[in-house]
Request: fold
Amino acid sequence: MEENRTALDGVQYIVVKIGSEQYGIDIQFVDNIVRMQPITRVPKIQPYFKGVINLRGEIVPVMSLRLKMNQAPDEFNNATRIIILKLEPQAAIGIIVDEVKEVVTLEEQEIEKVHYDAKDENPGFIHGIGKHEGELISLLDLHVVIGDKENA
Amino acid sequence: MDTSQYLEIFIDETKEHLQSLNEQLLILEKEPDNADTINEIFRAAHSLKGMAGTMGYKRMQRLTHDTENVFSEIRNGKMRVSANLIDTLFQSLDALEEYLENIQQTADEGTDDHEPIIKQLNDILASGTGEAPKAEPASKEEKKEAKAAESGGDGALASKFKNIKLQEYEINAMQEAEKKNMGVYGVTVYVQESCILKAARAFLVFKALEEIGEIIVSDPTVQDIEDEKFELDFSLYLISQEDADKVKTVVKDVSEIEDAVVEKIESFGSQKAESEEKEEKPEEKEEKPKTAAPSAPAPAAAQAVPAKQPTPAKQTAKPVVNRTVRVDLEKLDALMNQVSELIIAKNGLVSISSNESSDVSVQGLHDQIEYLERITTNLHESVMKVRMVPIESVVSRFPRMIRDLSKKLDKKMELYMTGEDTELDRTVVDEIGDPLMHLLRNSADHGLESNEVRRQRGKEAVGTIFLNAYQEGNNVVIEVGDDGNGIDVESVKAKGIERGIITQEQAETISDKDAVGLLFMPSFSMAKKISDISGRGVGLDVVKSKIEALGGDVEVKTKLGEGTTFIVRLPLTLAIIQALMVELGGEKYAISLGSIQTIEDISVADIKYVQAKEVIHIRGTVIPIIRLDKILDIEPREKQSDNLTVVIVKKGDQLAGLVVDNLIGQQEIVIKSLGKYIDNSKIISGATILGDGEVALILDANVLF
Reply:
């Protein structure tokens, strides 16, 4: 994973692909990116959790973003990655993405804040849209995506 | 003096002393004449005072001092133990605990003087001894005089012992002593000006004199002298069989004593006559006119001005003491030995790997690995043992609590405890106190009937509350219960409907067990009246969540009219367990060995049905069968075999048979949490990582019941 630390006034995002859409994940919450690996199913948990993996001796729950966002179930292939996020020091969580593309730096003016109305399908999962080299990147609000207690 | 390095020791020991005081007081309450107990209490109080003094906690010292005074009177048989007295003493213990709490948090004792308690203690001292039979007049005087001196004595110090205003009873005492052919002496002691520890010297003088006689009264008061609230002299009246010279020698034998005036007092016509009779060295008296309090040194000032306290200790916001475990040296030695063995084993492996010849090394490797396995198991055990502490440290405060509750609720009750030496992990022990306390309070408040009702029902007048702790497999079980009213299931249901927790229809069909379970729902309080003991609606649900947070569970057994028992089951260890690995549809699960009773191979034909549920009948016991694959949402196997492997697990006296595909074997596993994001129905208590890196889930058999 190459890092581009030159632009200090922008925020770095990891651009990932889920389905046909591009999503941006704030790099400061990313602990690690690992290849797809066997996931141990855990019975009786939230359906969008695929199970747990062993990440160097730690048990890390893995969530399917597709299921969480009511999209078609994941298809695992060579490009599939698990992005390990750490929103809090002692609580890692993995999210499955179809592909990791690149790291981009977005200046403030390149980000358009998103306002939701009641018709939105996945309210609150993204907090902005980034414009980068002619492409649009949906910026995930990770706290909403993961901390689902109130929103799911 | 920087005493911070002793703070931990101080806190530890103070806790111990307070605990022992609590225990002994309870004994004393039942056996007011138990001399051993009184002595024990006196010793503990005395050590407490000393320690508080050393650490510079003046308020604490003062309170212990007054407490000790009371005990001293009791010990000398001058005062009788009364209910009021015990209550006050308990209050002062509570106050001391408050100080300790403050110290633990901030290294400072706080600013509460607990004057009411001190006053109460002194009142008791005064009146208690006053009530005492005439045979002990001396103590009476001592105390009353002390009070008199406190109020009026300050300015009069210059005239030495003759200026002590003798009360009538003191004079009586002296006359009585005279009748018994004992001499009464007026003594004024002068301490050397260079003396640093005046209070200590004075104390030694008092002690020396008490060996040969009885001090009736002193000026300044004993309290003031101990606090160094005096200049260079103090006076007292002594009754002794020795003659004046002997008394003088005794006093002067104490080092740093400048001089002592001892005069035999012949008659006690009146106080005036007395002061005329005994003329003293007036010049010395003139030397040091004093006004006691203003000139008193720092410690006294601290007492005089409670609001502004000269705090020697640093002001820190966070608790100043680390959480510690006291470890038996033996356990540490065992640990050390095992670490040494571990190193040897490691060296063995190193030598094998450097050894080229392959044939020998495979055999050697196996040996070494086996050896290593044994050591790590032992090591684990030892480390766990180090973390284990008896629950005694938590439960020992309960008798006192029950006593207080008994008074408060006006119900007669007695707490019986067994298994206080049962050991649990330190973290569990720290947390279990409050839930247990809550259960006990519940028993006392809701469980036990009032005295009146008990009599009508023909039960023993004194209600029984019990706390039994014992180990069961990998669990520790703590039962808390009473022989009171039991839980009225119907009223629980009614309450549930009222609170909207269940509907009318549900109430009709719900089983008694489930109805009782409603008690653990949040905001479900059974108390008809809210009391400050329990019944604020934050009761049992908190108990339950707390215990579950510790990996345990709670169960209720109740019989209307006969009593209720809460059974708390807690895991013995938190991190590593012995587990049986089983296979289910290609997935691996671990079941704690502690909850496994037996493993049976049964034929499908042996499965019977009771109430449409599968059961098996083994050795006279009917055991329900749980199809794990269904519970765990595992794809059923294509072909059902004729034989089933059933793991029989137990929870308390209940059994259940878990059907599994295959047994893999026994293994020591490290428990890891699934993290906070995953929300499962508690069937899976955690996960572990197997030797090949695969993740296996840990089944909590207790939840399956």
